[in-house]
Sequence to fold (193 residues):
Amino acid sequence: MTETYLIIGLGNPGREYKDTRHNIGFMLMDYLAEKLDARGMKVQSKAITISALYNEKKIILAKPQTYMNLSGQSVQGLLNFYKIPFENLLVAHDDLDIPFGTIRIRPTGGPGGQRGMADTIEQLGTKDFPRLRLGISRPPGRMQAKDYVLQNFSKDEQKLLPEILSRASDAALEFVMNGLNMAMNKYNGDIRE
Fold:
């Protein structure tokens, strides 16, 4: 039987949010969908899903459509629907606490102020599931975090995005093929190192 993995990118639905820092999780899902030539887009558990076969493993890519702070509804609904164990789940999201251009894969952890992660942890009843944290850095000066995450990436940041998404997609596929530890060892760190 084919093993199934669920990779969920957190973000906000709607064109006005498409290129914002908060939506780097969605950007990664789009990048992976293209890379894997994923097919069969549908709406399930308040998320847009699309699936692909990769080296005989089924990967479901999902973008919750609930808005960020209710993302956990989709995560839990999809896990239950596909009967996927936590160790086959990877949640990708923006992270203010790590520098832009840095990727951190972790087996567990708190939400770190990320409301989508906070809701996911609450809905799943555990913080013990793999996540792919995509650094967006802290807001400059006295800007509020909530305003910063809803801004588009700067022009300089936009130039690096393809490289970040490429490395993050490689990390996600490494996770699927060879597990969490291998993905962490190989991909954690700054893409520019």
The mean pLDDT is 95. The radius of gyration is 15 Å.
